[in-house]
Amino acid sequence: MVDNRYATALVIGSVLSLLATVYLSVAVGTQHWYQYSSPRVNGSKLRGIKEFINGDFNESLYHDTMFRMNGTLGLWWRCILAPNESHWYKEPDPKLETQCVSFTLPQQFAPKYKKTPGDHNNEEDLLRTYLWRCQFLLPLVSLALVFLSGLVGVCACLCRSFTPTLGVGVLHLLAGLCSLGTVCCFLAGLDLLHQYSSPPDGVDGSLGWSLYLALISFPLQMMAAALFLWAARSHRKNYTRMTAYRVA
User: What is the pTM of this model?
Assistant: First the structure.
């Protein structure tokens, strides 16, 4: 029979784990990790929009377009605030709307360069390349670990065993570290990018709410891991003490 304290810890840990999973999933699927705020766009600065949406993948080009078009960057998306083109007539003051393009799988693993691709003596930036790949893979690993811990928890309930709770806590601990690593890799890679291609004057950059959601999921997963580990360890000590008392 499970003590009420342990059962409460398991329930609270499960709720925290569910909240962390929802926050991380929303953060991964949205594009507001980093956003640029530039002056109002006029007609002379609209070049590069078609290349941004339909052209070949060029990191220098799409970042330059994002600088000028109030762009936002996510793990899987890049977006700009572009005017809505009319097929019938050209409005003097067109309405702006968000246009997003997703990163394909080959683009996620494409090498990053210290200069514009195609330049003479261009050198691959290995650090930024692997930071970008890690920021793509780590949240998937984190979600997979939480899903695996849920399966272990369900099996533990079916088997009426408290022992697998220790494994659930360890999996949540690893998932929390992966969530934190995602945010760190994203910020480190973005800082390196700005060292090679800094935003022009008048363009400000700020962290978006998607990044904060991913950051919030880290302490939630760590608190869930602490509750699961505490419940497993305390229950084991109590079980050992009761067994020794019965033997005596």
Answer: 0.82
Pairing type for strands 77-83 and 34-37 reads unpaired
Backbone φ and ψ for 80, nearest 5 degrees, come out as -135, 160
76: left (phi over 0), alpha (psi -120 to 50) or beta: alpha
- Evaluated on CA atoms 207, 210, 216, 217, the torsion sign reads negative
Beta strands in the chain (DSSP E): 34-37, 72-73, 77-83, 96-102, 204-207
Residues 176-201 pLDDT 10s? 999 999 999 999 988 988 888 777 77
Neighbour-count burial of 79, counting CB atoms closer than 10 A to its CB (0-12 exposed, 13-18 middle, 19+ buried) = buried
Q: How many CB atoms lie within 10 A of CB 161?
A: 10
**Residue 183 · residue 54 · CB < 8 Å:** no
- What element of type H or E holds 101? strand 96-102
**Per DSSP, what are the bridge partners of residue 124?**
113
Name the one residue in this structure whose structure tokens are 């609209």. 46
Which tokens hold the place of 218?
């880290």
Does residue 47 sit in helix, strand or coil?
A: coil
Nearest 5 degrees, angle CA 177-CA 139-CA 172?
A: 40
pLDDT tens digit string along 159-176? Answer: 777 678 888 999 999 999
- The four Cα atoms 112, 116, 117, 118 give a dihedral, to 10 degrees, of -160
Residues 87-133: tens digit of each pLDDT: 444 555 667 777 888 888 888 888 887 765 555 456 778 888 899 99
Q: Which residue has the tokens 């793990």?
A: 75
CA distance 97 to 79: 10
Burial readout 122-136 (b: 16 or more C-beta within 10 A, e: otherwise): eeebeebbebbbbbb
